[in-house]
Design brief:
Length: about 260
């Protein structure tokens, strides 16, 4: 009967209120899906549930302790995950572009794989950025404007030691190579290994701030790595590179080469 009474008193504003809250929660879950914040948010939700129960049940000591603890945890959470939160907020409201032809993504991946394979064999360092929904232009410096199709030959020639624009990263937007010689922001995460060089730290720095995918070829070791979603996957072979790129590009649903 109590439920029926509640439903009788419902107005269209109540339904609108619930629909908006459900929509916001759903989109927040989509934004955070697959990120390292999910486990922490789960723990935070449990803590908030205990906090509310302590208030309802009249557990005064527990409630007072959690009252101070919850406020501190939320503040620490915002500080630690500021880059992820900013990336999620920048992603909100971005329209999904129309998909490209099915054969275009495999072609792009093959060109990138061939380029990285050739660069590793010659021990030539490289940074290749594939832009996602968030515009990377706000996070990079310098850069020479280029408007060309992505090919193995073009990427290889850009990173040759005697090329005037070899020092920096190339930017790929929707299948087009748009810039070269770009400098990326370095990560400030103290947990990142100090043994990593400037290229790897720059790749992680951009991956922390945006949803871009960054391919790194180490000049010292000749190994290929991928930075995405603030994480670095080190020493990736050619088969894993193709598989990982396909998975990441599909998850971003960007319609490459449209």
């Amino acid at each position: 009967m109590a439920i029926l009474d509640i439903l009788k008193n419902f107005t269209w504003l109540d339904f609108l209120d619930i629909a908006i809250v459900a929509f916001l929660i759903y989109n927040i879950i989509l934004l955070l899906k697959g990120t390292k914040m999910v486990r922490l948010l789960t723990g935070l939700a449990v803590l908030l549930a205990v906090y509310l129960l302590s208030h309802i049940c009249g557990l005064v000591a527990l409630h007072r302790m959690l009252d101070h603890l919850v406020g501190s945890i939320i503040l620490v959470f915002v500080i630690i995950y500021q880059h992820e939160i900013r990336r999620a907020l920048l992603t909100m409201g971005k329209k999904r572009p129309a998909r490209g032809q099915p054969h275009e993504m495999p072609q792009l991946i093959e060109e990138l794989a061939a380029a990285t394979d050739g660069l590793t064999k010659k021990s030539i360092g490289a940074l290749i950025v594939l832009e996602g929904k968030i515009d990377v232009d706000d996070f990079i410096e310098v850069g020479t404007e280029i408007d060309a199709k992505v090919t193995c030959e073009l990427i290889s020639s850009i990173f040759l030691p005697y090329s005037p624009i070899h020092d920096g990263a190339v930017i790929i937007k929707k299948g087009k190579l748009t810039k070269a010689g770009c400098f990326l922001p370095l990560t400030r995460n103290p947990l990142v290994s100090k043994s990593l060089g400037t290229r790897h730290r720059a790749a992680i720095g951009l991956a922390e701030r945006t949803d871009a995918i960054v391919i790194i070829v180490s000049e010292e070791t000749g190994k290929v790595s991928i930075a995405a979603d603030g994480r670095l996957t080190y020493d990736v072979d050619q088969a894993s590179l193709r598989k990982t790129l396909k998975k990441l590009l599909e998850s971003r649903d960007q319609g490459w080469l449209q």
